[in-house]
Amino acid sequence: MALNDAAKLLGQARHVVVFTGAGISAESGVPTFRDALTGLWSRFDAQSLATPQAFQEDPELVWGWYEWRRQLVQRVRPNHGHLAVARLGAHVPQLTVITQNVDDLHERAGSESPVHLHGSLFAPRCATCSRPAPLGERETETGTDEGRRIPPPRCAHCGGQVRPGVVWFGEQLPESALEAAARAASECDVLLTVGTSGLVYPAAEIPRLAARSGASVIQVNPQPTPLDPIATVNLPGPAAEILPALVSAAWA
Ligand code: BJW
Ligand code: ZN
Q: Helix 239-250 and helix 80-91: axis angle, to 10°?
């Protein structure tokens, strides 16, 4: 049985990497990017909003979109998938959590210092001088409307526009995060990939790098992905069900 095979691999591992995408936060109520019906892409043309060009052309639209998402994330809670990942940390000798997500649900579930490859909704910075900028006021009762335009704040130092601290298409990933992720992927014995479509590069190289370096790859995803061929074990299904079952099976 696939779950037991995966549990055995995990139970014997010294260094486990958990590599997550939007799917792990789906059951918390955070829309994914590319799911046809519920994904962010179906409501907005997210691929064109998540670009430096979009921010330049229409900063109020882009800032409003990120404010809506930040407030949504503040209203939801980590799910059993995030909690199971945190629980793994208590069992395996070394655990590295690498996430493409810009939410903070791994941290709030108890995972310490996950590597954020695509930045964070909670770390805005100046688009001109790059200095970190304070977050706006805390969530309102109802939150910001989905399509509301909000002018980005101005930098207290140089007066430049404040931008979301995330990685847009065409931008470099933070060097230290990418290096840490690549090092962990090349050194681990098991990489557990959860809830990612595996379409966005260079992040999608991380599980491939682990496989090339000899690690076993366990994949948790209800849908097929381009990572299927490199997976040692595929566990089809939602993360909030599969991950707790996997951790329980490994350390029964
Ligand atoms: C569940 C579930 C449940 C559902 N349980 N699972 C090589 C080839 C082709 C193109 C490129 C290439 N290298 C670079 C590129 C260009 C580009 C790219 O990758 N394009 C592709 C789309 C083709 N990459 C870049 O531009 C990157 N930068 C770069 O390469 O710089 C190089 C450079 C060189 C020289 C000069 C300048 C630059 C940057 C990429 C940044 C990506 N940023 C985003 C937005 C972040 C901010 C924001 O949130 O708004 O990151 S895009 C978006 O996609 C976001 C995500 O982190 C990322 C990945 O998505 P993810 O997490 O996989 O989500 P989905 O929705 O795709 O999938 C969800 C999955 O969950 C599905 O599989 C479901 O089945 C599953 N699921 N429910 C478990 N309950
Ligand atoms: Zn500035």
A: 20
Q: In this structure, which topology does domain 1-30+78-118+173-252 adopt according to CATH?
A: Rossmann fold (3.40.50)
For ligand 2, an ion, list residues with CB under 5 A: 126, 128-129, 155, 157-158, 160
Query: Whole-structure pTM over 0.90, yes or no?
Result: yes
Residues 199, 25 contacting (CB under 8 angstroms): no
CA of 200 to the centre of ligand 1 (A): 3
Q: Are strands 190-194 and 15-20 parallel, antiparallel or unpaired?
A: parallel
CATH of region 32-75+125-163, choose from 3.20.20.30, 3.30.1600.10, 3.40.50.300, 3.40.50.450: 3.30.1600.10
Please report, in tens digits, the pLDDT of each residue of the chain (252 residues total): 899 999 999 999 999 999 999 999 999 999 898 765 555 655 667 777 899 999 999 999 999 989 989 999 999 999 999 999 999 999 999 999 999 999 999 999 999 999 999 999 999 999 999 999 998 765 454 566 666 889 999 999 999 999 999 999 999 999 999 999 999 999 999 999 999 999 999 999 999 999 999 999 999 999 999 999 999 999 999 999 999 999 999 998
Ligand nearest to the CA of 162: 2
Å from CA of 225 to ligand 1 middle = 13
Rounded to the nearest 5 percent, the helix, strand and coil shares of the chain are: 40, 15, 45
